[in-house]
Structures are given as C-alpha cells and as structure tokens.
Amino acid sequence: MAGHKYQAPRGTFDVLPDVARTRGRIERTAAAIFARAGYEPIATPSFEDTELFERGVGHSTDIVRKEMFTFEDKGGRSLTLRPEGTAPICRAYVEHGMQALAQPVKLFYVGPFFRHERPQAGRYRQFHQLGAEAIGTDSPIADAEAIGLLADLLAELGVPGVELRLGSLGSLDARQAYLEELKAYLRAHETELAKEVRERIDANPLRAFDSNDEGTRAAMAAAPKLVERLEGEDADHFAEVRALLDASGVEYTIDPTLVRGLDYYTRTIFSFVCDRLGAQSEIGGGGRYDGLVEQLGGRPAPAVGWAAGIERIMLALDEESPAPGRDVFIAVADEESEGRSLALILAGELRKAGLSAEVDLGGRGLKGQFKHADRIGARRVVILEGGGAQLRDMSSGEQRPVDTGDLIAEITGGQA
C-alpha cells in the first residue's frame, strides 16, 4: 500500500534551491550593508516566554490577541513562537548586561517568525525577516541612519516601486492628551466604525487609522492627526529626522495616518511600501521604541529599529536565480575504481583551491556525464580515461591532454 503523501502545514512553505539562492543574495547584501555601518549579528531563540510579548508587544494588539502560536511545555510554562524580533532582542540586551557596553549597541538579525494569519501572497504563518536595532540612543541621527539602512538595502537589491512613508507618534507621555481627543472623536462617530474598532476605542484607539473597513476609513478622514499636534521636544525631534533625511537625499512622504501594529513605538515611525505588493504593500518598517527596554526590566534605554520581510522583498523582486555554473566537472570514461577514486581526489583538491568541482554521482556513461556537465553549466570537463586525462573547454570544444598534477595551475592560470 502506498504511503501517505505529506504536505507542509498551511501557511508554511519549503525553501527550494532556486528560492534559496535569491534569499541568499538578499541576506548577503543586508549583512554587508549592516557590517559597513557597524551593526553586529545577534540570534535569539525561536520561542520565548509568552509574557515577553504580552508585555512588550501589547495586550491590545492583534498579534497578542489573535496571531500568536502559544503552547505549554511539559513543565506547564507558557511559551510562544516569536511573532516579531524587537522584544526578544531587548530581552537579550537586558539579560546579558549589554547596557555596560558602549552605547548604542547596534545589532542586526535574520530568521523565522510566526503568526497565525490568513495565508496569502506575501503573508505566511511562518515567515522570515531581517532587521536592525540601535539600542541606547535617543539621537535623531539614529532614526535617520536606521531609515537609510533599509533604503540602501532596497535600492541595492533593485526593489522597484518603493515609497517611504514617515510619521511620528510622539513620546508616551506627550501623546496622552491627543489619545483622549481621539477617543472622544471615535465615540462621537461610533456608529460609523467597524465592530472591532469600536471594541478597542479605549484600549488602542490609534488602530482605527489602520482599519480596512470603508465606513471606518471615511470616518477617520476628518479625525485629529497626531503629527499635526506634536509639540516641544517631540516636534523638534521629528523636524530633525526630516532634515537629516533631506540632507541624505532620502525621499519620503509624511503620512499623518501612519500607525504600527505594536504598542511599544514612540516618536518616529516609518513604512516602506511597494506598489507591486497589492493590499499587503509594506515591505519593511519600524520606528523608535524608547520605553521598551525599561518595560522589560532594564534601565531606560531609548532605541530605534526596523524589520523587513524577506518573502515580501522576493515577491517584489519577482526574479529567478539560476544555479551558478561550475568551474570543473570530472568525467570518468572507465569503470575502474581507480578512475573514480582519482576523480574524487581531484575534486577535493580543486575545491580546496577555491574552485567549484563536481564528479558524477549517478553512474552515467561518458555521454551522459557530458550531458550532465552541460546541464550544470560546467565551464571545463576533465576526462579521466586509460590512465591519462584530457581537459575540454565546454564553450569552444577545444580538448587537449593535461597532467592531473598541474590541473589547478592549468585552470587558475587560464590556460585551458
């Protein structure tokens, strides 16, 4: 009886070689940009104590209310697969005493994250993000640098149709008066709002700006905007961030309705959107979170950061990454074990010299080996036959005898 055919769980996917090559390019490009700016790599566990996200992300957010994968371990502890990266990094910053280091601590990460969402293009239940965090500074320069890093990454990757939207939520204390004004407006227009927006007027009124409900969107068009009510240090900070972006040549649009889906954000927030992504248009974004480290038990440490979705970047790029060609394929004409052994030895020597080399693993005849060499894009083929060796240039068809002891020199010296 045939075995059951298994499939990946809904909302997840297998990363096949062609996709992995594109992902590898994205991750290498990001790592190079981060390194040039002095950001160091960090990795946190795929699951954390559930309370970390309840406290850090916020009880009223959709992430905590609806989207987290939470379970009890065998000791009865509540654990959650991480839905985002900033809270775990701040937890690590506090736990490992990173406040004793020179500030700010600049970190970058890449890895899988998990949210129970309705799967669709660009949105999965297991997804991958890369991001950057600068913890321990309230300087507007850090905000502008963070935004510039993501702008540089998207530009270097060649992502088309990108727009930067910029906003500010003000400091936690300063925006309390605004929130009361917004709540009063929402209550006055309560009959026009979606049910979930009405239910969160007290807990999270800002999320009304993020609703897709037509009635809510119409009502919010005339709602008071926080950006228009910034005062004092909050207004100065936002003005300086804009001036720094202007000086750096980073184009942006002020979006007074911009909000984020996590409660820890303060002051600068930003979103890079791409017109290729349709309804799920954000390709990456973030902002400042000056109170999160203290909220997680550390000394006050203002910070700024962002995350970008690797799958969304790939969807926007819509490119195929062909397999790279090989420098050498080693074909064995004879079936003797000596020839196969020599082929494996030569391949190892070539690889140690920094060349890509393959041998036949499929038991093909010589004709089949040549077809395979052509299929994988081998530039040269070494043919082992009758105790001797021939070197063929696959582009010109030229073939000549070669001493296997001089093979590396022949190839790296360009004599083949």
Summary, kept brief:
The protein has helices spanning 17-36, 50-56, 62-67, 86-95, 140-157, 176-188, 195-199, 214-220, 232-248, 292-295, 310-317, 337-352, 366-375, 407-412, and strands spanning 40-41, 47-49, 70-72, 78-81, 105-114, 126-135, 162-168, 253-254, 266-274, 282-288, 303-309, 328-332, 357-359, 380-385, 388-393, 399-401. It is an alpha+beta fold and 416 residues long. Strands 1-5-6-11-10-9-7-8 form an 8-stranded mixed beta sheet, sandwiched between helices.
Features:
single chain, about 425 residues, alpha+beta, eight-stranded mixed beta sheet, five-stranded mixed beta sheet, 16 strands, about 35% helix, elongated
Number of strands: 16
Give helix % range: 25-40%
Mean pLDDT: 89
How large, in whole angstroms, is the Cα Rg? 28 Å
* N-C termini distance: 54 Å
Strand content: 15-25%
> What is the overall shape?
elongated
Number of helices: 14
Class computed from helices, strands and strand pairing: alpha+beta
Low-confidence stretches: none
Main beta sheet, described?
A: 8 strands, mixed
Strand order, largest beta sheet: 1-5-6-11-10-9-7-8
Task: Give, in order, the helices and strands.
Answer: HEEHHEEHEEHEHHHHEEEHEHEHEHEEEH
Structural description of this entry:
It is a single chain. This protein is of the alpha+beta class and 416 residues long. It is 35% helix and 21% strand. An 8-stranded mixed sheet has the order 1-5-6-11-10-9-7-8, sandwiched between helices. Strands 13-12-14-15-16 form a 5-stranded mixed sheet, with helices on both faces. A 3-stranded antiparallel sheet has the order 2-4-3. Strand 15 and strand 16 (399-401) form a beta hairpin. Helix 1 packs antiparallel against helix 5. The longest helix is centred in the first third of the chain and has 20 residues, at 17-36. The mean pLDDT is 89.
